Amino acid sequence: MSEAESTINEPISDDVSFDVEVRVAATPQHLSAIRAVAADLAMRADFDLDAIADLKLAVDEACSTLVMHAASGTELSCAFRCTPDEIAVRAVVPSADGTPPRRDTFSWRVLSTLADFVTASVSRDGTPTRVRIDLVKKRTTVVNA
Amino acid sequence: MTSTRRHTTGDYDHLEPLFAEFASLPEDDERRHELRERLVTEHLPVAQHIARRFAHRGEPPEDLTQVATVGLINAVDRFDPERGTDFLSFAVPTITGEVRKYFRDCSWAVRVPRRLKELHLSISGATAELSQQFGRAPTPSELAGHLGMTNEDVYEGLQASNAYNSSSLDEMLLDDAESSMTLGDALGEEDVDLAGVENREALRPLLARLPERERHIVALRFFGNLTQTQIAKRVGISQMHVSRLLAKTLAHLREGLLGSPR
Fold it and tell me: Membrane-spanning regions, if any (chain B) (predicted)?
């Protein structure tokens, strides 16, 4: 399956409610808490071990990217929504410079390989300006070989 | 070449004369590389045999075989045929030492009760078995069913695996990346297509400096779109090890790319 085919064009709507939210200081050393929550949710949703590992890596990559875009001294919020078929993740930080993460980088390649859907955006409707990454990991379709 | 000191005879005798030739050739000689690969490959059963002796001690067999293979590669590189001993007399303690070192260094990062270590090993074994059977990674409930455990037990075991630290193995391969062959060498190099990656100029040297095996795993996952389970099968290590190596390599690349377009 090519990457284009595996990318599903379904943004997470703005008014969606999340089941779990983790907030940490926007620094790399606190991301392990978010990774642990991501892995735990995927495990309890009975995702297969590859999908659990992928979600954990994807969340780590997304949050690491956001930490680099975060204004100093701010918090990163990472929220999860679990439905029978997928786990949706929204990670947000107050932006340092109002620019979204680029999509032509290796990091973006990693994210779009690991997740079934991923998008980055900057919202200027509130103060401060916030930069956000949404991603969705779907349950692996079980086709026994 | 015959030696009266040789006490292990049999299948490997025909390889013995190759060591003298191997040792006589300069580092960059094509023939030397061929010989090295042949000596390692044909002695692999020795490494596998030693790895099996350490089974049932709480480590995935794939990982033990890999450590033993690293020991074998070191033995091939360090063996001096001039000393008059045969290769196996030198290799067996070298390989065994490498596996012992692995057990010493590769430990649980935090104190983990024996029950959890055993749980980790059961899950690791069942994962390999079910992956083989299904052609994909199993889910926690499938592992629970297979092992006759509750889902909660499996969750606990999977979480315990996070506390497991096999970094010494990774470090060992990192250290040896330039001087010695890793398993990746035998696998061939993946041509990584970086077209469309804006920061490829910064990325390329970082990828080039990765140990062969890590580069191979990154290439298979992010440029070949293989799953971790498929990569584990191809490289000959456990899926959990692939997972750890990927996490570590991505963090390493991220650090190296700081300052380039994000």
Answer: none
Q: Is B137 within 8 Å of A49 when comparing Cβ atoms?
A: yes
Task: Report the pLDDT value the prediction gives residue B183, as an integer from 0 to 100.
Answer: 38
Each residue's pLDDT tens digit, B154-205: 999 998 876 665 444 444 444 333 333 343 343 344 456 676 677 778 888 8
* Contacts (Cβ under 8 Å, ≥6 apart) of B87: B12, B15, B16, B19, B43, B75, B79, B81
Q: What is the mean pLDDT of residues A105-130?
A: 91
Reported ipTM: 0.84
A78: tokens are: 């990472």
Chain B residues whose C-beta sits inside 8 Å of any chain A C-beta: 127, 134-141, 151, 155, 158-159, 162, 196-200, 203, 221-222, 225, 227-229, 239, 243, 246-247, 250-251, 253-254, 257-258, 260-262
Give the residue from A98, A136, A94 showing the smallest Cα distance to A119: A136
pTM of the full structure: 0.70
Chain B CB contacts of A105 below 8 Å: 197-199, 257, 260-262
Fold (CATH) for B194-262? Arc Repressor Mutant, subunit A (1.10.10)
Question: At the topology level of CATH, where does A20-138 sit?
Answer: Heat Shock Protein 90 (3.30.565)
